[in-house]
Amino acid sequence: MVSKLSDNQRSLKLAPLLQDGGWKLQSERDAIHKSFSFANFNCAFAFMTAVALQAEKMDHHPEWFNVYNRVDITLSTHDCQGLSSRDIDLATHIDEAAAKYISQD
Known about the structure:
single chain; alpha+beta; four-stranded antiparallel beta sheet; about 20% strand
């Protein structure tokens, strides 16, 4: 069973994503959200493919929305109805993947 992040985990692991990573807490539920913009649809789709492959390996899937070069991602763990370490791990991978595909202009 996956558990929600403790207050200590939120301070140590979640805070850096919120402060430096551009992720934002959602006001209506315990979730984080971030928008990404790429040079074109091909870069956005390549990014989504990289994220999808990692998400499948982790058995943890994002909620996302794509229009042309923009990808909006929301992360929350349905099993615990809030943020878990899975969300932190996937957000970290997402940021690493985005850096690779955003630089492909």
